[in-house]
Design goal:
There is one protein chain. It contains 8 helices and 8 strands; from the N terminus they run βααββββαβααβααβα. It has about 230 residues and is α/β, with parallel strands linked by helices. The strands form 2 sheets. Strands 1, 2, 5, 6, 7 and 8 form a 6-stranded parallel β-sheet that branches. Strands 3-4 form a two-stranded antiparallel ribbon. A hairpin with a 4-residue loop joins strand 3 and strand 4. The longest helix is centred in the C-terminal third of the chain and has 21 residues. The two termini are about 30 Å apart. About 45% of the residues are buried.
Length: about 230
């Protein structure tokens, strides 16, 4: 059985009332993947904006495997200390990783963030030397429109992430740099300039799904009808 673990920040955990891209990808794989699979991880909750806590289960559709390793305001530096134990406990075959925006926005520059990504990869491999990882480039948020230095850091980190994936890729533990979400527009695909609305959820799920299909023949391409 194929086990997938979503790892991410606020764009991955989602907040109360949302479906999340995790749900959209699960729906897609349920229809297109030919074998059994599970979504795994140590957490299940959404973020509750009313209480500023990650303890809500008010999904728009709660009837799906909600497991993940994601957190509101958490980035590479927060997930790196957790990933070895999470991989050991939940035994994912594939990590679906969307991290970096919060790091670049508040904690570390592009070079430091890329170093965290390298450490994260090493830690995951300590628990499973054959783990595969699909890495989503950072999607610039609305801040990039008015803060050129921040936009430059995002672009530089994405270049470093691509180099990291190429440098550390191994046949037994492949690293996949996914495509960027198709035609993603923060003015139309988010509800606040950062966090995905329904169309943004579909586009992030599509970026993972298309890359998993093209690189590893998992499932099928994300259909236009799913948007």
């Amino acid at each position: 059985m194929l086990r997938l673990m979503p790892v991410g920040d606020s764009m991955t955990i989602g907040s109360a009332g949302e479906h999340t891209w995790r749900y959209r990808l699960w729906q897609h794989l349920r229809e297109t993947y030919g074998g059994p699979f599970r979504i795994v991880g140590p957490r299940e909750a959404l973020y509750d904006k009313a209480t500023n806590t990650s303890d809500s289960y008010e999904y728009a559709d709660p009837d799906f495997p909600r497991a993940h390793l994601a957190g509101w305001g958490e980035g590479w530096q927060h997930m790196t200390p957790l990933i070895a134990d999470a991989v050991r406990a939940h035994k994912p075959d594939v990590l679906l990783v969307s991290l970096g925006l919060i790091d670049l926005g508040f904690y570390t520059d592009a070079e430091q963030t890329a170093e965290q990504a390298r450490t994260f990869i090493a830690e995951a491999r300590l628990s499973n030397p054959r783990i595969a990882m699909a890495l989503l480039p950072v999607i610039p948020n609305v801040r990039a429109d008015t803060d050129p230095p921040f936009a430059a850091q995002v672009a530089h980190f994405n270049e470093l992430l691509a180099k990291t994936a190429a440098d550390l890729d191994e046949p037994r533990s492949p690293l996949l740099l996914t495509s960027t979400p198709s035609a993603y527009d923060v003015n139309h695909d988010t509800y606040d300039g950062t966090h995905p609305n329904a169309s943004g959820e579909h586009k992030i799920a599509g970026a993972f799904a298309d890359s998993l299909y093209e690189a590893w023949d998992l499932g099928e391409r994300y259909g236009a009808g799913e948007y």
